[in-house]
Amino acid sequence: MLVALVGVPAVLAAYLTAAQLLRLLPADMWWQSLGATDFADPRQLLYRHAFLPRLAISLLAGAALGLTGTLLQQVLRNPLAEPTTIGTNAGATVALTIATLYAPWMLEQGREWVALAGGALSTLAVLALAQGRSFSPVAIIISGLVVSLTCSSASALLMAANREYSEELFIWQSGSLIQNGDAVVLGFAPWLAVAGIAAFLLLRPLRLLDLSDEGAESLGTNPVVTRLAGMTVAVALTSMVVAAVGVISFVALAAPALVRLAGARTLRQRMIWAPLTGAALLWLTDRLVQVVPFTSEIPAGVATAFLGAPLLFLLLPKLRTSPDRDGAMLSSMHRRSGWAHLLAGLVVMALLLCAALVVGRGTAGWHVASAAELADLLPFRAPRIAVAVSAGMMLGVAGTLMQRMTGNPMAAPEVLGVSGGASLGILLLFVATTDVSRPAMIAAGLVGALASLAMISQTGRRQPIANDRLLLSGIAVATMASAFSAVMLASGDPRLDTLIGWLSGSTYRATAADATVAAVTAIALLAIVPLTIRWLDILPLGEAASRALGLSLFRVRIILLVLIAVPTTIATLVIGPLSFVGLMAPHLARMLGFQRALPPLFASAILGGAMLVSADWAGRMLIFPWQIPAGLLAALVGGPYFMVLMWKGRQ
């Protein structure tokens, strides 16, 4: 099985490689062109300085990722650990992006050191957040998700602020194996050799981590030192890969998982076969993306994400989990009756809306619009403000509904992939037709959101502890949506500017029609959700208690899923998928003391609307005359906020 696992993709990749190479250069010239390249022959130049280096880096990077995944999964005792899911890739990427744009002198000694610093910091942040739950698999994955989303938001902001470099940055970040000479290969190979030697020197102490910490110590191994050494090797390898070719998603997850399923039981076997499998998989993937009939080449890192997301679904049943105590750790400190405070919240929101309408910056500095000026500004500012407040209210209510329905305080449309599913449906519509109307986008987004909710709900019901699987299923759906978004952005579509703005959560192109649709949906949602109060008070008690109290769980869940999917789709349509409002607003409502079902729903709506209105106004003002998308700014605030919540919970 192990030989077939490596051999089949390797043979197929070799066939594709030979076929592509024969179209480039006759076989009798291969050896001659390798040793004595004729610089006057473009075919030989491409063969020697583009084709062969690309082949070599695909094999080396694949092997490095296979070894990295094996080390991380052994060190963390987590079958889902890999550089993408624990945040290392995102940290290395944002560090290199910052250095490239603002401190290129830092790259003079090599990109590897910058990537290593960023990857190490993000990994340390993930481990610090997960420490309070004894580094449980789910805690690490969720912490990695939050850190990754925060870093990704920062990268997206940098790309939005430097649009002249955005296409090149995007292609690199998506994992491009395109090479121009031997420099990258020759620089990467020694790092891989040293890391491989270090990993095999750690084989015995790493193998003892299969025992309990007490058992490992009794056999003369310090588990803390062993984990630190293993993590150091893995993070260093990951950083080298990111520095060399960008982010290659999920090969580090797939290779160890596949060799384990194929019969590699011991750590030694996995450390030998996983790098070979990773090399074969990435080699084959790189060959396939070059033959797929697409307007432009799909980055290899995007292609591997399509492999990783379904694999994550397949591996979920094998994940050992522990009871989730996050509900306790994120609970509020005190209770309030709520209604008087809701009135105060409405007053604050009204003031924010007025400020967003009349206060702004111009060429002469800060300015408060007069009544006459406001008449001219209203057609431009009012739709944006209406879209922002309506989308924020819908996401806040949807987040509250999800947390009540699942009993999971980390549930949110963005985290569980509902926004990703809606965006995936809309992107598929972009692919299917060139004439995209608003009704068609709403229908496509609604189908995607409902499909996403159906997938994650099925995964949760199949397992006795649904919360963990629910979150990880959401990660898989969000990953597929992100990968497809990347394909669209790499396609050269003439609507690229619109797509980038929408994916960032922008209100730039908000129209009066958008504002009307969003406002009507938000008002309808707020009118309907009070009818579900009894369900929302009972559902957190658990399935048995809910059934005993007369709830028809199937019917209740279907209704709640529709109430979540429709507003999430409209919010995603008008402001894009990138936002943490659906997660932040319910938590802020609980922290302010709103406990029973009805007051938190309205409090979340007020808080969500206020957050997105504030983010939209701040996005217009902070770097005037340029603008920061509202959803992107909200995500940049939401990621650190969620980290603070998790940090408090671990204490």
UniProtKB/TrEMBL annotation:
It comes from the Bacteria. It is found in: Cell membrane. It holds the Pfam family FecCD. Keywords: Cell membrane, Membrane, Transmembrane, Transmembrane helix, Transport. CDD domains: TM_ABC_iron-siderophores_like (cd06550). Belongs to the binding-protein-dependent transport system permease family. FecCD subfamily. This is Iron complex transport system permease protein. The lineage of its organism: Bacteria, Pseudomonadati, Pseudomonadota, Alphaproteobacteria, Hyphomicrobiales.
